[in-house]
Amino acid sequence: MNDITYPTVGAIVADDYRTAAVFSKYGIDFCCKGHRSIDQACTKKGIDLEQLLTEIETVLSSDSPSDVDFKSWPLDLLIDYIEKTHHRYVTEQSQTLLFYLDKLGKVHGQRHPELLEIALHFKITATELAQHMKKEELILFPFIKKMLLALQQKQTIEQPAFLTVENPIAQMKDEHDNEGTRFDIIAKLTQQYTPPTDACETYRVTFALLADFEKDLHKHIHLENNIVFPKAIELESHFTIV
What we know:
This protein is mostly helical and 242 residues long. Helices cover 69% and strands 0% of the residues. The longest helix is centred in the middle third of the chain and has 39 residues, at 114-152. The chain is globular.
């Protein structure tokens, strides 16, 4: 990989999502902290840089089919995909997990008090993500689509109340960081989603659903932080906003 230069971890994953598995293996956050260079990420985690680069090279040179190339998608199509796939997933799975976590707390909370902590953290996540997604769907994403349409029609756009698209993007990224941190706590409380030996089937299913939720959240945040947001900022640079 010495002949390829990537400015950030997020850029590597944006170019080929298969590399996400390598970063996840080493506990490197490619979504919320995808702005770090690969050597910064390795230094932070105490990981051998050459070993990581070798594994990334192996993935990039393999003949296995790469994941969907979201970076090549039109911006409005990618936004629609995020809303219909990831936003919808969060909405539906949040309700399922809230129900299961409440049930587990009532049945197993005395023997496993960490379940009550997990339920509390996830309840905050469900509430915060619901508000977060609404801000994207009602404010940020419509403005991005407005810019796309104006560029196609060679028109100007009025300055929005938030002045520049970088302002709501900065807020969305901060909120992404908050959810990433909260799920780090949930992962530790669940021993990386490992159910205890006395776990019932509902217990096991709930932990599996939490693991799936975190995995989907990582991809969701990656698509926004590393692809949608940089493209939106670049798009705005084409305009003299009046």
